[in-house]
Write a structure and sequence with these properties.
It is a single chain. With 450 residues, the protein is α+β, with helices and mostly antiparallel strands. It contains 17 helices and 14 strands. Bound molecules: protoporphyrin IX containing FE (HEM). Protoporphyrin IX containing FE binds next to helix 6, helix 12 and helix 17.
Length: 450
């Protein structure tokens, strides 16, 4: 059995030492302060450590690039996303990429990726900008104070639903948006635990199923009667059709849609952290506002100078998913350690992003570091790695560029309490971590149009 505090061997097992404590106490500490817990363990034990969660398994945490490379390139079947993400299964459903492995997982990604990469990006730009513009028009007079996580979640939900259902009528769009909004709100209310207490989730999904059923039946019939026409794979609006053509049932399609909603939470959180860093660094904020004023965001390939490095630095310091988790399926060696089934290998994205060897003065907010150096996929990895790497790895930077860019163009953003920007803690919001305060933001619309 693993003895925290020393390397341990049981048969072939060899794990690094880690924090000592009752599993429940360790789980509570990790859940209550996901960043702080990882930093404290790193300070005490170094790059690798084992957190023994008793009945919840031993979590072996890695953050050095050579270990992360071994983790993310593990032979098929050795490390399983399905087990690593089992806590997400009740939320995203059994057909979600998060909880699939092997051929079923690859097939699921093959369906999703074309909708979120390449030419599909430009095709989604207008919906993202329209969603921001509409939110500014609808919200009543400004200045007004918004919870930035909630605000960004609403904007991204609106854009995503419009993009996913270009053939949906107003009733469908409204119904799906409302059902997903309810599911999202339920999940977000369940803070402070790594996924426990999913009250109301089933009811929300049932409402979503009811709303989707007639639309999916109609599309299925339409696709059957035009069996020869294959949907163009170059935009998000084809995603549901491609799922239908691949033979997915209604439940499996619903799982894909809920997965996208859950995944968008990471982007919403990042918008909020970006606002926080704009408030902490007013000189950078002012430079980005000037740069944004020069750009037509509706032009293909539009980019605001400095914004992508700013976002990359925010994702370095506040990765919404601070770790990527895999369950051990077959015995595996990672560096000098040997993990057996029943344990978990954790790629600690947060700790990798704070390695002094990789990022000198890691606590400093320095977007320019991304201009000066290229980082390998095992040094800087906000989107995880290997076969489970985030499907939105191209789409998210694009949507963040547009959503933040539009806000910089059209709004004056300021902390709700100008005397206290604070340094909020990251807390769990089921699938991702998010600023505990929501980043209360005073938003003043300064122009109708950019
Ligand atoms: C800033 C925004 C985002 C961040 C930082 C982020 C990060 C991540 C991370 C760390 C993972 C786990 C990867 C792993 O286990 O190795 C993941 C998985 C995933 N993300 Fe994202 N994500 C973001 C936004 C999005 C968006 C907008 C989408 C929508 C397309 C998306 C779709 C997914 C999907 C489908 C998975 C599961 C992939 C799989 O298991 O094969 N993400 N994301």
């Amino acid at each position: 059995m693993h003895r925290p505090g020393t390397s341990s061997f049981t048969g072939e097992e060899c794990l690094p030492p880690g924090p000592v404590g009752a599993p429940q106490a360790l789980l509570a500490a990790w859940s209550a302060d996901p960043y702080g817990f990882l930093f404290r363990c790193r300070d005490a034990h170094g790059d690798c450590f084992t957190v023994d969660l008793g009945p919840f398994g031993k979590r072996v945490v890695f953050s050095a690039p050579r270990h992360l490379k071994a983790l993310f390139t593990a032979p098929e079947g050795a490390l399983l996303g399905a087990r690593g993400n089992e806590v997400l299964a009740p939320i995203v459903g059994k057909s979600s990429a998060f909880v699939l492995d092997g051929p079923a997982h690859l097939a699921c990604r093959r369906l999703m990726l074309p909708a979120f990469t390449g030419a599909a990006l430009d095709a989604s730009g207008s919906a993202l900008l329209d969603a921001v513009d509409a939110s500014l028009q609808e919200g009543g007079p400004t200045p007004r104070v918004v919870d930035m996580v909630e605000y960004a979640s609403r904007v991204l939900l609106r854009a995503t639903v419009r993009l996913l259902f270009p053939r949906g009528d107003a009733g469908l769009i409204e119904g799906v948006t409302a059902a997903l909004g309810d599911i999202g709100a339920m999940l977000r209310a369940d803070t402070g635990s790594m996924g426990a207490g999913m009250g109301g989730l089933r009811a929300g999904k049932a409402r979503l199923d009811q709303t989707l059923a007639p639309f999916l039946a109609g599309r299925r019939a339409a696709l059957q009667s035009a069996a020869s026409s294959r949907p163009d794979a170059s935009h998000m609006g084809d995603f549901v059709d491609r799922c239908l053509q691949a033979g997915l049932g209604d439940d499996a399609i619903r799982d894909q849609i809920v997965t996208l909603l859950a995944a968008q939470d990471a982007s919403a959180t990042t918008v909020a952290w970006c606002a926080h860093f704009l408030f902490r660094y007013p000189v950078i904020h002012a430079a980005l506002v000037s740069a944004a004023a020069e750009v037509d965001l509706r032009a293909p390939g539009a980019e605001i100078f400095g914004l992508s490095h700013f976002v990359m630095e925010v994702l370095r310091l506040r990765p919404p998913a601070p770790m990527a988790s895999r369950g051990v399926g077959r015995p595996i060696t990672i560096g000098e350690y040997r993990l057996l089934p029943g344990s978990y290998a954790i790629g600690a994205i947060l700790l990798a992003h704070h390695r002094v060897e990789t990022f000198p003065h890691p606590e400093r907010f320095e977007p320019a570091r991304f201009r000066e150096r290229k980082y390998s996929q095992y040094e800087y990895l906000p989107f995880g790695g290997g076969v489970h790497r985030c499907v939105g790895f191209q789409f998210s930077p694009y949507e963040l560029q547009l959503v933040l860019g539009r806000l910089l163009q059209r709004c004056h953003l300021a902390p709700a309490d100008a005397s206290d920007v604070g340094d909020p803690r990251a807390s769990w919001r089921v699938a991702t971590t998010s600023p505990s305060t929501g980043i209360p933001t005073k938003m003043t619309v300064r122009s109708e149009r950019a």
